[in-house]
Amino acid sequence: MSELFDRTTRPNEDLFFSRNDKNDPRLGEIAGRDEAGYDSADIVIVGCPQDEGVRRNSGREGAALAPNAIREQFYKLTPFNIRKRLFDLGDVRIGSSLEETHDNQLEIVKKVLSDGKRLIVLGGGNDISYPDGRAVAEVFGPESWIAINIDSHLDVRIAEQRNSGTPYRQLLEEKFLRPAYFYEVGYQTHFCSPVYYEYIRSLGVNRISLELLRSRAEADMELKESIKQKFTSQSSSLNTFFGFDMDAVRSADAPGTSAPSPLGLRAGEFIQLVKYAASLANTRIIEFSEVNPKYDADNRTTKLVAIGMHRFCTGVS
Question: For position 266, which CATH number holds?
Answer without folding.
Answer: 3.40.800.10
